[in-house]
Design goal:
GO terms for molecular function: hydrolase activity, acting on carbon-nitrogen (but not peptide) bonds. It contains 17 helices and ten strands. It is α/β, with parallel strands linked by helices. The two termini are about 45 Å apart.
């Protein structure tokens, strides 16, 4: 009876985890990844990946305070050659003969963190030092300078912390004691910020919303990890040798939405200039803000080339070979709170290997990844 009681309590506790399709899909993904890992399929996929020639997997993290980051790093250290991004890219594009003579032919991995959240300092830095693993962080100098919250989290944060019960924004009134209204207001703010055609317009709108919502100025413990790191923290990390930096534009606009080409060039080139001054070393790579295909047109890529960068990373999903376009490098989105087995499955490329089989079983039009 005792053990029945215990398992019943465990099941009850597990129930909320199983609620909702998203949670179930997540659980299923972990189970599948565990099955692949413990049957040796992930090891086999990694072996095939290694035999296919030089390859670079660039992982794309944001926050570092998720509970599974240590396991991610331990796994990657064991099965890949983890390098700073610039080193890894230099090696990827080196003449083929050099790779042929390499003894260690494990695929290359670069760990990248976008935006420069404060928990990169409090969590990723200590892990990188302890495990002796290099990481690369893409910085936004305008935010480091101001210490402001990043714009993409402001819709949710401002509405959550509003000091008023009713607000009228752009002719529409929202009652903030109703959850649906709150969500709608948050979405409206996000959409305006996302589609801003200049930094001036975006910041003016943000100032207006902050005032309307009367948000208190104090910072909660929960909010602390969402703030940017300071220059002092950035320099301390750099001195350790385990952290390198890339550019993520001056203020993180979606570059394709900027209406003035001068703004596009400023965001990209000024970022490199400021970072090189602050860090006293060359800055050769850039991560496009919200780097999806629809946000990276020809003018954007040209601006990055004109500013003197050697490489640029997107959020297009996949890994890179010497044939990859150096200004449209692919990354794999990762998350420090995601189970390490799922990350292991994704980096091994097993989904790509199984895709034809999967399609044959469940029919066309379905995508496993
Ligand atoms: Zn970003």
């Amino acid at each position: 009876m005792g053990s029945f009681g215990l398992s019943w309590r465990c099941a009850m506790r597990a129930l909320p985890m199983l609620r909702g399709r998203k949670a179930m899909r997540k659980q299923f993904g972990v189970l599948l990844a565990a099955l692949f890992y413990y049957t040796g399929l992930i090891g086999l996929a990694r072996w095939l990946q290694q035999r296919s020639g030089p390859r670079l997997i660039i992982l794309n993290y944001h926050h570092a305070s998720g509970e599974d980051l240590r396991r991610h790093l331990l796994y990657l250290r064991r099965h890949y050659r983890v390098l700073h991004l610039d080193e890894a890219l230099t090696e990827l594009y080196a003449p083929a003969e050099r790779w042929a003579t390499k003894r260690d032919k494990r695929a290359l991995v670069a760990l990248t963190f976008d935006d420069g959240y404060h928990d990169n300092y409090t969590h990723a830095f200590s892990l990188a030092r302890e495990l002796r693993m290099p990481i690369t962080i893409f910085l936004i100098p305008g935010y480091v300078e101001s210490g402001d919250y990043f714009w993409w989290g402001e819709g949710r944060r401002l509405v959550q912390r509003a000091g008023v019960a009713v607000v009228t924004l752009e002719g529409r009134t929202y009652r903030l004691d109703a959850l649906e209204e709150k969500a709608r207001l948050s979405q409206t703010i996000d959409a305006r910020l996302r589609h801003a055609s200049s930094i001036v317009e975006r910041e003016a709108f943000l100032a207006q919303v902050r005032e309307l919502l009367a948000v208190p100025g104090n910072v909660t413990v929960e909010e602390e990890k969402d703030r940017p790191m300071s220059w002092a923290e950035i320099q301390k990390m750099q001195e350790s040798g385990w952290v390198s930096y890339g550019a993520h534009t001056m203020h993180h606009p979606i570059l394709a939405y900027l209406s003035d080409p001068a703004d596009l060039h400023y965001e990209v080139s000024e970022c490199r200039k400021v970072l090189e001054q602050r860090l006293a070393c060359p800055v050769r790579s850039l991560a496009y803000p919200v780097g999806r295909a629809e946000h990276i047109g020809e003018e954007v890529v040209q601006a990055v080339k004109d500013a003197g960068y050697a490489w640029a990373v997107t959020t297009y999903k996949g890994s890179n070979t010497p044939a990859s376009d150096p200004y449209l490098l692919k990354r794999m989105l990762s998350d420090s709170s995601r189970n390490w087995l799922v990350m292991a499955a994704e980096t091994s490329g097993i989904w790509d290997l199984l895709a034809p089989l999967w399609k044959a079983v469940i029919g066309k039009g379905e995508d496993v990844a």
